[in-house]
Amino acid sequence: MAGLPPLPVRDPALADKHLLALPDGVEPDEVEVLASSRFRNVRWDDAAAEAPARTGVLPAVTAALGIRSVPDRAPGARSLRLARLSSLAGPYAVRVEDAVALGLPGSTSTVWVLTAPRERGERPWPGGDRDGLKRAFPDGLPVREEERVLQWLVAAARRLGGAVRTQTGAVLTPDPDASTDLTVLTARWLEPDDVLALVQRVQPRAYLSVATPGSWAGPASRTGRGSQGAVGGSPERGGSGLRAALERYGVVDEEERHRLMAEADAYDELMLAAPPAAEAFGVLVELGVDGMLAVEVSAHEQLPPLLEGLPWVADGVVAYRVRWEPREIEQIEQERPTLEHRVARSRSAPLVSAVARVLHAELGGEIADEADFLVDPADL
After folding, report:
1. What pLDDT band is residue 104 in, cutting at 50, 70 and 90?
2. Were 219 and a residue from 11, 13, 81, 265 both cysteine, which residue would form a disulfide, CB within 3.0 to 4.6 Å?
3. DSSP state of 127
4. Phi-psi category of 165—alpha, beta or left, where left has phi over 0 and alpha has psi -120 to 50?
5. pLDDT per residue over 247-288, tens digit each?
6. Phi-psi region of 353 (alpha: psi -120 to 50; beta: other; left: phi over 0)
């Protein structure tokens, strides 16, 4: 990018930083939006004000969400505050030969430099490492603030098609295709049959995920008394477990035990006759050798910071999570999964997007990816 300051590749301090490498065409406001999707109180530090300012401002990054426009102070690099002790400086221009010397992809056009506290914990345990952080930090994984900002750095690189060079020298190039799951966040609740009908527009074989019929038939008749009329019942009649529990809690009177057990029976029978409305449910689609697609519906508590304070979230938000689950679930957490997994993923990801589009068209709201970054439905 013309006019940007060059990356100080000969500065010894650079070796002690985490770097976010991005391809050509990624603007600073895109980086800011992704930061605001994960961290509260993201801001451009005033230190950048010393750089000469151009006339005009960058376009509003997401006017519909009420995010402010950001003054463009290029050609000087700016500093984006992420958290109390962490900031991201950039963008810096980088030459191809310098990018390759740093181990970064040859397509790298700009680099952002992360300043964060070095906080390391225990050595990583064996197991999945989709982001490559265990490989990058074999002597102790980042914790606390360094962990949070570094995880965001990898997620941003995945979203923007870039890479991360950690302070240890390891280069992480997250696969953008590895992020398949989408969540529709909306103020509207749909009943299970209505959601099923929407999903069946995309996948006619979809079905509701419900408990196996007959798995529990309700309380045994006359649980409080045995077949001979003795209070307390027999194990066959189902009353011994509740009887023992009442005894443990000091209910020693036989008639009082019988009364409490009879009330428990009556409550169970009522719930079977008129069960409460579902607060969470799922819709499933069998994909054969490609695994399964699931739509999970429930209340959503932890909103992306970009959505907090918007009028439509005031009365609560419902999340419609559209997930792909492969047959070999452990492959999801592999930094380099097998060819079979990647082929199944390539066939399943369009189905996830199609279901998310149908749900969003009906429900409105916003669509978020696995990293809580908002997605434009037109891009699906």
Report:
1. very high
2. 265
3. S
4. beta
5. 666 666 777 777 777 777 776 776 666 555 556 899 999 999
6. alpha
Contact 21, 164 (CB under 8 A): yes
pLDDT of residue 18: 95
d(CA 273, CA 271): 5
Mean pLDDT calculated for residue range 94-121? 92
| Closest C-alpha to 90, from 163, 156, 27 | 27
Residue 18's DSSP bridge partners are 114
In the 3-class helix/strand/coil scheme, how is 255-275 assigned residue by residue? HHHHHHHHHHHHHHHHHHHCC
Bridge partners of residue 321, in order along the sequence: 183, 296
pLDDT at residue 186 above 60?
A: yes
**Which of 72, 60, 102, 79 minimizes the C-alpha distance to 3?**
72
Q: What 3-state DSSP class applies to 235? A: helix
Name which residue leads in pLDDT, 259 or 165.
165
What type of residue sits at position 178?
A
Task: Find out whether 334 and 355 touch, Cβ atoms under 8 Å.
Answer: no
Which tokens belong to 163? Answer: 């890479």
- Alpha carbon distance 70, 346 (integer Å): 37
Q: Which two tokens stand for residue 16?
A: 């002690």
At 148, give phi and psi (nearest 5°).
-65, -45
C-alpha 47/C-alpha 24 separation (Å) is 26
The residue-averaged pLDDT of 327-349 equals: 94
In eight-state DSSP terms, residue 109 is E
Place of tokens 């000969």: 10
- Reported as a pLDDT band with limits 50, 70 and 90, residue 54 is very low
Q: Which of 104, 100, 112, 102 is nearest to 27 (CA)?
A: 112
Question: 122: how many CB neighbours lie within 10 A of its CB?
Answer: 9
- Tell me the one-letter amino acid at 127: G
Query: Within the chain, how many helices (H) and strands (E) appear?
Result: 8, 14
pLDDT at site 264:
74
Mean pLDDT of 115-133: 91
pTM: 0.75
